[in-house]
Amino acid sequence: MDNRQAIQQSIREQGDKIRKLKAEKAAKTEVDEEVAKLLDLKAQLGDEPTPKTVLKTPKGTRDYSPKQMAIREGVFKVIVDCFKRHGAETIDTPVFELKETLTGKYGEDSKLIYDLQDQGGELLSLRYDLTVPFARYVAMNKIAKIKRYHIAKVYRRDNPAMTRGRYREFYQCDFDIAGQYDPMIPDAECIKIVYEILDNLKLGNFVIKVNHRLILDGLFEVCGVPKDKFRTVCSSVDKLDKTFWEDVRGEMIDDKGLDPISADKIGEYVQLNGNDCEGGHRVLAITLVRFDMSLARGLDYYTGVIYEAVLEGAELVKSNSKSKEQIGVGSVAGGGRYDGLVGMFAAKGKKVPCVGVSIGIERLFSIMEAKMERGNQEVRTVETEVLVASAQPNMLEERLRLCKELWDAGIKAEISYKANPKMLDQYQYAEKAVIPFLAVIGEQELKDGVVTLRDTKTREETPVPRADLVSTIKQKCCSNSI
After folding, report:
1. H or E element in which residue 125 lies
2. Per-residue confidence of the chain (482 residues) as pLDDT tens digits?
3. Beta-carbon neighbour count of residue 202 at 10 Å?
4. CB under 8 Å to 166, separation ≥6 — which residues?
């Protein structure tokens, strides 16, 4: 008897012993002791039952299906094309930074930073945004001027609101201009970029709110806010797009110790807004810019002009209960000037003026996804242009040979992975995957030196000489704008 059989025999004997103890109503401690021995024997076999695992994504994260990825990649393309059109180059930075790099840059939002366990003596944190790593990159590499874009994931330990595109892991699409330039010219271009992207995505009506950090500081001073409370009060005002004034007022008074008279004065000012399309905005044809005193942008590193894009329908509404609900996704882009951030990292505090904007891709995606679902729009999840097919058996090698010809010519093609697939199955696959053409090959086509090209949509079939197949497919694909 080998070792495994011996253990199995011991398990049977131990099971009999436990059943006997239970029948004799032995003490629970004695039974538990024998059960533990039984479990230990089963563990030696490696056959112990695996605990049932609940399969889910972590809170504030999600998976993306092929259809959802196709939509998101379309949004990415619009954004990247815009960034490149404005002359930006791209960089990349680590997904985590030294904790000291991120500390003290985000004000009250610093509590949302994900800290990692000590790794080899370095205290690390997941990046909260792409702006601070960019400033560190500029200072570390002694860069005086750069126009860059960066698309990457960031992490925030926030309360997620998945239906409104607010996650703990999400992409940011950043465009920044660093360097000493004449006033407001780079700032106007950043606002123009926001306008172009939202206009090209055709998400509906939107407005770009504009304010200035120095105006806010002056407002706080006039309202009697102590200077050491400017940033913390600013953080409260920044929540006006997420909650109501009554809640913001209560936070400033109860949590931050602001005088009620000062809070009420702030309440009068932050309701002021108006149209402002002068100067560069008018020249650049940015017609949806509005000055808004309630815009605060809570991050501590902003020093000048600040802006935020909001889609129509993101207003707050009150329900019958005490809870408040925000309709829509609110801000979909935001940014501003941060002239002092690079100096926090640079030797001797050398400043490099910067201005930039960040596009909230997840929020835009949520809107695009809902829009396509409402309109029952067809979404292609593959870019295949041709399905190489055959109705006859024993044609696998010929299908592979033709597929290779198309691949070598740069045409996106695929075949069925069955040796002898049914023609109907191949037709149905092409229709389901929205593959525009089938290149059908059989014994007669080989004899005649042609390939039957079938249009999936019209079902029209045309014999094409084998030598002309590549050029014919490219011409048809180009005319169909695939």
Report:
1. strand 124-126
2. 577 788 888 888 888 888 888 888 888 888 888 888 888 888 877 655 556 778 899 999 999 999 999 999 999 999 999 999 999 999 999 999 999 999 888 877 888 999 998 777 889 999 999 999 999 999 999 999 999 999 999 999 988 877 667 789 999 999 999 999 999 999 999 999 999 999 999 888 888 999 898 888 888 888 888 887 777 888 788 777 667 788 888 888 888 888 888 888 888 877 766 655 454 445 444 557 888 877 887 677 889 999 999 887 654 444 444 444 444 556 889 999 999 999 999 888 889 999 999 998 888 888 888 877 777 777 889 999 999 999 999 999 999 999 999 999 999 999 999 999 999 999 999 999 999 999 999 999 999 999 999 999 999 999 999 999 999 999 998 877 64
3. 9
4. 158, 160, 329, 362, 363
Token representation of residue 430: 């092409």
Radius of gyration of the chain (CA): 32
CA distance 394 to 421: 10
Q: Report the C-alpha gap between 75 and 83 in whole angstroms.
A: 13
Q: Are strands 289-292 and 206-212 parallel, antiparallel or unpaired?
A: parallel
402: helix, coil or strand?
A: helix
CATH number of the domain located at residue range(s) 66-375 in this protein: 3.30.930.10
- Cα Dmax for the chain: 95
Question: What is the rounded CA–CA span in Å between residue 199 and residue 214?
Answer: 30
Domain 386-479 top-level CATH class: alpha beta
Q: What is the DSSP letter of 91?
A: -
Whole-model pTM? 0.78
Q: Domain boundaries in the chain?
A: 2-45, 66-375, 386-479
